[in-house]
Amino acid sequence: MEISLNKTELTGALPALGKLVSRTSLIKAYQAIQIEGRAHTLFFRTRNVVEGIEFRMDADLEDDFPAVLVEFEQFRLAVRNSKKKTLDLEVENGEVFIDDVMLAPVNGHFPVPENIPDQDATVTELPADTLAALSLLAPLTDKGQDIRKVLGGINISRDGLTATNGKELSNIPLSLEMTGNVTIPFPLALLATKAFGESGRLTTWQKDEDTRFELSLGNWTWRAKAYKENYPNWKLVVPDRTEATHYVSFQDDRAELLQRYLKSVPDDPQNNNGIKLSRLEVPDNLHLESSNGMLFSVLAEFDDAWGDLSFTVRKEFLLHLLNAGHRKIELNDAYGPIVGTGGNGEYIAMPIITKRPQAQTEQKPEETASSQTDTNVAVQAEQTAPQPIPEQTESVTEQIPNHEQETSPTNKTNTTPSTKENTTMIDTNTITHVVSAPVQTSAQNNKPESKLNPMDELIISIEAFKAKLKAMVDESTAMSRKVCEVAISQRQKEREYARTKKTIEKIRVASGF
C-alpha cells in the first residue's frame, strides 16, 4: 500500500519526535519510531521509559495497517534526503519504504498507549495560548539536582500555569475549569512541536498510586506521569500589590533596548551575573550597571519617593521578566522581592543583597574625596623628590621646599633611635643626633646630584598633572553628591509642607472656622 505524504509537514515533526528517542538505550524499541495507519490517519510515535509523544497526519488510506517499528535515524535521513515535495510511503508485510528506500525493521515490544478510563478521567479544555505560556515558564523551572523534584515541573491549576525554582516565580493565569491541580514534568518534547496557537485538552486519571495525564495540542499528544509531590503554595510568596512603595516603568521600545544590552553582557558567575539598577535624574533614566562595569540607561518613569534607591538583580531574571512582556517593576525596598507586571501574569524574583564594609559606609563623601586627594599629593611628592642615599652616618633633617610644603598636608619623620638607645651607642664611631626640625623627604647628599634628562622631567610632570586632575575630579564628584543631597532634602521639605497644608485644611473644615 502506497501513501503520499507532505514532506514539509513530516520534516517539521521530526525534531519533536526525536526528543524522546533513546539512541543509547539497550531496548531497541526506544530507538525506533512506530508507524500505524488507522481511520484515514497516520500515527507516528516515539517514547522513552517515562513518557511518549504522538504525531497525527491525515492520509488517504485504502486499508488500515498494524503498527510497525523502524529505526528512527534511518527514517529521519530518508525523509530529509528525499528530493520530492511529496513523499511516497509504502508499507507491505511489515516492511516500510520511503521513495524506494527500505527502512530496517526493529524487533521488540513498543508499549501500546493505554486506554483512558471513561469514568475516573478528568478532562480540562486548554486555550490556544497554552504552549506559549509553557515556553515562557520553562526557563524558570529548576533544572538542577534539587531535593524537591517537583520544582522541575510546571503546575497546572484553576489559577493557571505556575513555575518556580525557589529564586524566581511566575504565574500565567489561564481560564481553566479544573478542581484540583497537576504538576507535569519539563515539557521538552512538547515545546519542540511548535504547536503555538493550537487549542487542546488535558486529561488526568489515576493508575495505582500514580497520576497519569495526556496533553493534546493540535495534531500532537504527549503522555507522561505527573509528579506525586504536592506543589508549594506559591500564593503565600506573592506580595500584596498595595504594599509596593516604589515602581519604575518603561515603554516597549525601551524594553527591546534593555534586552539587547542584557544579552550582550558577558556572564560573571563569581558575582551571580548581578545587574545594579538605579535612577538617573534630569531626565529620568533607568541606569543599569553590570558586575563587570558595562553601563546602560534608558528613559523610564519613577514614583515620586524613589530617591537614591538602588537594587541588584541577576541578569537572567531581568531577561525572564522582559520576555514575559512585563514593563513595570514594583518593590518596597532593595531587600524585598521585585514584582514584574504589565505582561503575562506576574513575575516575582529576589534581588541580590550585598553589604558594604563598615568603614566604607560610615565615611562621608567629602572625607573620601579629601583622603584620595591627600594620597594623590603624597604620591606626587614622592615621585618628584630624589631618592635618599643609603651611605649616611649621621641622620640630618632638612626643610621641604616651599612649593612642596603647600601641597603636602602632612610631614614624614625619619626613623631615629630613642634617647636610651643613643646612650648605648656611645662606644661606636657613629653618633646619631636628633634634631627638631620640619620633615624631610630625602637625606642630604654630599655628592653632586645627577641632572634629570628632559624625558624623565616630562614623565614626572605628566604624572603630577594626572594626580592633580584626579584630585579635581574627586572634588567635583563630592560636590555633585552634595548638590543631589540638597535637592532631595528640598523635595522632602516640599512634600512635608504639602502634607501639613492639607492637614491644616482638614482641621479647618472639621472645626467649622
Describe the structure.
The protein has 4 domains: 2-103, DNA Polymerase III, subunit A, domain 2 (DNA Polymerase III, Chain A, domain 2); 122-236, DNA Polymerase III, Chain A, domain 2 (Roll), CATH 3.10.150.10; 241-349, DNA Polymerase III, subunit A, domain 2 (DNA Polymerase III, Chain A, domain 2, Roll); 367-383 and 461-513. The chain is built from 11 helices and 25 strands. It has helices at residues 7-18, 72-81, 130-137, 188-191, 252-264, 315-323, 358-362, 365-384, 402-407, 419-423, 454-511; strands spanning 2-6, 32-38, 41-47, 52-58, 65-71, 86-92, 95-98, 101-103, 122-126, 154-157, 160-164, 168-172, 182-184, 200-207, 210-217, 220-225, 246-249, 274-280, 285-290, 295-299, 301-302, 311-314, 328-331, 338-341, 346-349. The strands form 4 sheets. Strands 13-10-11-12-25-24-23-17-21 form a 9-stranded antiparallel beta sheet, with helices on one face. Strands 5-2-3-4-16-15-14-9 form an 8-stranded antiparallel beta sheet. Strand 24 (338-341) and strand 25 (346-349) form a beta hairpin. The model is unreliable at 356-449 (pLDDT under 50).
